[in-house]
Amino acid sequence: MPRWGMVIDLDKCFACQSCTAACRMENNTPPAGKDQAGMGRTILWNEVLPFVEGEYPNVKATLLPRPCMHCDNPACIKVCPVQATYKNEEGLVLVDYNRCIGCRMCTVACPYAVRYFNWYAPEWPEDLKAHLNPEPEVQPRPKGVVEKCTFCVQRLRQARETAEAEGRTFQATDYVPACVQTCTAHARYFGDLDDPDSLVSKLAHSPRAFRMFEELGTQPKVFYLKQG
Amino acid sequence: MEPKNPFTKAILAPVRKISTGDTLLWGTLLVLLLAGGAAWTWQYIEGLGITGMNRPVYWGVYITNFVFFIGLAHSGTFISAILRIAGQSWRAPLTRAAEAITLFSLPFGAGSIIIDMGHPERIFNLLFYGRYQSPILWDVTAVSLYMLSSIVFFYLSLIPDIALCRDRLTGAPRWQHRMYEVLALGWNHSPEQYRRLEKALDGMAVFMTMLVVTVHTVVSWLFGMTVQPGWHTALIGPFFLLGAILSGTAAVVIVLALLRKAYRLEKVLHLGLFNSLRKLLITFVLGWLYMMIAEHLTIGYSSMTEEMVVLTDKFSGAYAAVFWSMAALVFGVPLLVFLFKGKNNIGWMVFACVLINIGMWMERYIVIIPTEASPRLLTVMGQGSYLPALPEILITVACFAGMALLYAVFTRFFPIVPIWETAQELPGHAHAAETSPTGD
Ligand code: SF4
Ligand code: SF4
Q1: How many C-beta neighbours within 10 Å does residue A169 have?
Q2: What are B291-336's pLDDT values in tens digits?
Q3: N or C: fewer beta carbons within 10 Å in chain A?
Q4: B412: Cβ–Cβ under 8 A, 6 or more apart, which residues?
Q5: Residues of B at the A interface (Cβ-Cβ below 8 Å)?
Q6: B407 contacts: CB under 8 Å, gap ≥ 6
Q7: B49/A75 touch (CB, cutoff 8 Å), yes or no
Q8: B185 Cα: distance to centroid of ligand 1 (angstroms)
C-alpha cells in the first residue's frame, strides 16, 4: 500500500493561488459570500497563508500553501466521538459526511486549522452550479458537518479505474491531487512516501525539508522545502 | 410510626399551595423556555450559521453553558454525598434543596452539548460508532451516569417524605394523591426500612463522590486533551472541579435564601446554615485563587510563545476586561463580603453568591474563547473574534429559565426540606438530634 504524501517547495511557490482555485473546482467547496467571508466562515480546503516570523524590523514572511497534512498521528481522529473522521489504509485522513454529528471537536483539536464546518447549507450561483464536479466523493456536503482536504480521493479512485480499464497495474505516479497538477510553478510534488525511490520521498529527506509544528508529534505527511 | 419532626407542618405548608404569584412566575419562565425552544428550531432549520460562532471560534456560549451547568450540578452531590461521608450533620436541612439544583441543572448541561451539535438527530451515532478515545464520549458517559445516579440518589431520599405527603395531604387532587401513593412504594416508616435506606444512601454517597470528581475532570478534558495553548495543562481538571464546587455551593446559598423567604421556612433553614456555608465558601474562594495563581504563574514564567499569546490576551489584550472583572466577581468582592459582611447576614451572602456565579460563567467563557481565538496559526488568521448572536442568547436564557421552572414546580409538589433527615427521632434509631435548628 502506498503512503501518500506531498512536498511543497517554497522556493518555487510564488503564491499565485492556482492551487486554491483548482481545489475549489475539483472539490465543490461553495463560495462563502461577503458576509460569511467576513466572519471567517469561508471553506477553503487549500489556503496560501502568510506566515510571519520574527518581529519588526527583522521580519521574515513566508507564504505557505496549506492543505490538510494528513497526519500519521492526527489530532482530529483521536477526538472524533463517532469515528466520522478516519484514516484509510493508504494514510488518507477522510470524513464520513453521513456520520459526522457536527460537534466540531476535530476543528478545535487540529493544530493546522485545516477543518471547516458547514454553517449553512452550501449554495452556488446558477452558472457555477452547472460546473460542479459530478464525482460521488465530492457531492455538496450538507449543513452541520465538517469537511476538509482529502488529497482528492476521487482522483485516486479514477486513476485506479483507468489503470484497470487499460489493463495495466496502477502506479503511484498515476495519481496526483488537483493542486499538484495545477501548480503554476511546479512547486508541489506528490507520491508514495514509503517508496524510497519516489521523488517525494527523496525530497522529504532533503536537508531543506521540514514539517509544520513538528514538535506536536502529529507527524504530518506534507513536507515543505525551506526557502533558500 | 412517622418520624418525629416538630417542623413537619411548616415544611409541608408550601406543598400544593399554588398561588397567583406562582402561576405568573411559571408562566414567565415557560415563555422564556419556549422562546429558547423556538430559537433552537430556527437554528436546526437554518444551520449553526445563525449563531456568532465562526472559524476559529468553533465553540461559543453553548459549550460555556455546558461547563457551567454541569458545574452548578456539583452543589447537590457535594452537600449530600461528600458532606455525608464527612459526617457533617448540619447539612441535613439543605440536602434536598441542593440535590434539586443538581437534578434540574444537569439536563440543561447535557442539553447544551446537543444544542451545539450540527446534526443533533445523529446523536445515536455515539452509541453505534462511539470511539472511546474521544473526550466527548467520556463526557457523554460520565454525564449520563451522573444524571442517572443523581436521580436514584434523589429519589431514594425522597421516598419517606413522599410517604408523609401520601398520609398527610389527603386533600390533594386524586391524581396527585395517586402519584404520592405510587412513588412512595408502600413505605410505612418501619425501622428496618430506615436502616436499609441509610445504608443505601451511605453506599451511594461514596459512589457519587467518585463520580462527581470524575465528571468535572472529564468535562475539562474536552479542552485539556487537545494541544491548544491555554488548554493543554494538567491543572485544568482540578481547576474545573474546584470551580464547579464553588459555583455549586454559591448556588445553594441563593436557593436557600429564596426558599426561606418565599415559603417561610426561616425556622428550618436557619441562619446557622448560612454561616456554615460561608466558611465553606471562604475555603473554596481561596482554593480558587490558589489554582488561578498556580496556573497562570506556570504559563507566564516559562513564557512559551503560543501560550503567551493567549495569556497576554487575557491579562492585557482583547479579553482583559472580562478576565479582570471575572477575577473581581469570583474572588475579590466575594471574599471581602464573606469575611467582613457575610456573618449572620443573608442579604450580603446572597449578593456575594450571585457575583460568584456570574463570575464563574465568565470564567468558563474566558477559558474557552481566547484559546480558540488565538490558534497556533495566529499570524495567519489574525485574531479571531466572537460575540454570541441572538439565538445563542435566547437559548442561554431559556436554559436558566428552564432550570428555575423545574425547581419552582418541584417545590410545590414535594417538600424541599427533607422531613425525615431533619427529624429529632426516627423509627428505630435516635437520629441526628443536633440537626435541629438551633441557630448559631
Ligand atoms: S492536519 Fe488536522 S485535519 Fe489534517 S490530519 Fe492533521 S490533525 Fe487531521
Ligand atoms: S465534527 Fe464530525 S468529524 Fe469532527 S469530531 Fe465531530 S463528529 Fe467527528
Answers
A1: 7
A2: 999 999 999 998 888 888 899 989 998 899 999 999 999 999 999 9
A3: C
A4: B14, B15, B16, B17, B18, B22
A5: 46-49, 53-56, 58-59, 113, 116-120, 122-123, 125-126, 128-131, 133-137, 140, 222, 225-228, 372, 375-377, 379-381, 384
A6: B100, B101, B104, B255
A7: no
A8: 55
Distance CA B381, CA B64 (A): 23
How distant is the Cα of B11 from the closest Cα of chain A, in angstroms?
45
**Sign of the CA dihedral B323, B327, B328, B330?**
positive
Separation CA A72–CA A144 (nearest Å): 26
8 Å CB contact between B353 and B250: yes
Residue of A nearest to B62 (CA): A103
Calpha distance B39→A161 (Å, rounded): 48
The pTM score is 0.92
What span, in angstroms and rounded, lies between the C-alpha atoms of A25 and A190?
A: 19
Per-residue pLDDT of chain B (440 residues; tens, 9 = 90+): 677 787 888 888 788 778 888 899 999 999 999 999 999 999 999 999 999 998 889 999 999 999 999 999 988 788 878 888 888 888 888 888 899 999 999 999 999 999 999 999 999 999 999 999 999 999 999 999 999 999 999 999 899 999 988 888 888 888 888 899 999 898 888 888 888 998 998 899 889 889 989 998 999 999 999 999 899 999 999 999 999 999 999 999 999 999 988 888 888 888 888 888 899 999 999 999 999 999 999 999 988 888 888 999 899 988 999 999 999 999 999 999 988 987 888 889 999 999 999 999 999 999 999 999 888 876 556 667 899 999 999 999 999 999 999 999 999 889 988 888 888 777 766 554 444 444 34
Residue nearest to atom 2 of ligand 2 (CA): A100
CB of A69 closer than 6 angstroms to any ligand 2 atom:
no
Q: To the nearest whole angstrom, how far is the Cα of A106 from the nearest Cα of chain B?
A: 9
Residues pairing with A4 in the sheet: A192
From the candidates A64, A108, A218, which should be mutated to test the interface with B, based on the most B CB atoms within 10 A?
A: A108
Cell numbers of B69, please? 451547568
The architecture CATH gives domain A4-225: 2-Layer Sandwich (3.30)
| Residue B304 burial (C-beta neighbours within 10 Å; 0-12, 13-18, 19+) | exposed
CB-CB contact of A79 with A105 (8 Å): yes
| Distance between CA atoms of residues B11 and B95, nearest Å | 14
- What is the predicted pLDDT for the residue at B381? 60
Atom of ligand 2 nearest to the CA of A96: 3
Sheet holding A222-225, edge to edge: A188-192, A4-9, A222-225, A209-210
Amino acid at A97: Y
Percentages helix, strand, coil for chain B (3-state, rounded to 5) are 75, 0, 25
Residue B247 burial by CB count (10 A; 0-12/13-18/19+): exposed, middle or buried?
A: buried
What is the domain partition of chain A in residue ranges? 4-225
Burial A45-73 (b: 16+ CB within 10 A, else e): bbbbbebeeeeeeeeeeeebbbbbbbbbe
The whole-angstrom distance between A143's CA and the closest CA on chain B is 6
Ligand nearest the Cα atom of residue A141: 2
